[in-house]
Amino acid sequence: MIFRQLFEPVSSTYTYLLGCADSGRAVLIDPVLPAWQRDLEELRRLGLTLAYTLDTHIHADHITAACKLREETGSKVAHPAIDGLACADLGVEEGVPLQVGGLRIEPLFTPGHTDGHHAYRVGERVFTGDALLIEGCGRTDFQNGDARALYHSVRGKLFALPDDTLVYPGHDYKARRVSSIAQEKARNPRLGGEQSLEAFERLMAELGLAYPKFIDYAVPGNRACGRCPAGVPEDLQQYCKQIGESLQG
């Protein structure tokens, strides 16, 4: 498998490029709108054709580049079927692998951060979106988030994967790139060790986090597979800026 981990600094988001060397087809997990040209350049450099974009959930802190990349490359938009997005070409769900050349992508339904969140397992790697971060987890106080559901998603499903499974999160704010299931089980201060459900629910309820500054634009934009809505304030334009001239020519 051809693999690249790409970082978008405005929202501290990781995008993952997975490519099949035999078929030349590729998938981008959680592409970010301001970085779509970077992704096209990386695909071109590797000689790959984008088959699918695949988001883990409806994001609140950035807008997906799924629609823009479909316009540029003819790729298909894959998204968790539970969210019911009319703009998606393919609804993915647990138990139905997505096969792209030699790549077998296994969706894992991991609600809690949002009610439709999915992680994706590919061989010895798992792409955990915002459900499981390196020594952390996503918040549970919006988009039908649920601390109880997240606890069971992580400890009951992700922590059930083999210990040497590599964990690639949707974000990191301390320049960390990868963890493992064993490390998160041992060291994650929110969900690891002997953490009880009751203690986790209490911890999440007491975080007191600020209202997400981009959520009112990101959620409708992502429900449209990456259409930045009108009226985004100037100080937030960097989250969804599209450069008009395509690298495709």
TrEMBL record:
One annotated GO biological process: glutathione metabolic process
PANTHER family named in the record: PERSULFIDE DIOXYGENASE ETHE1 (PTHR43084), PERSULFIDE DIOXYGENASE ETHE1, MITOCHONDRIAL (PTHR43084:SF1)
Q: Which Pfam families match?
A: Lactamase_B
Q: Which CDD domains match?
A: POD-like_MBL-fold (cd07724)
What's an example of a GO molecular-function annotation for this chain? Answer: metal ion binding
Provide the Metallo-beta-lactamase domain boundaries. Answer: 12-171
The record, for Gene3D superfamilies, names:
Ribonuclease Z/Hydroxyacylglutathione hydrolase-like
Q: Is Transport given among the entry's keywords?
A: no
**Protein name per its UniProtKB record:** Beta-lactamase domain-containing protein
Key words of the record? Metal-binding
The organism named in the record is: Thauera phenylacetica B4P
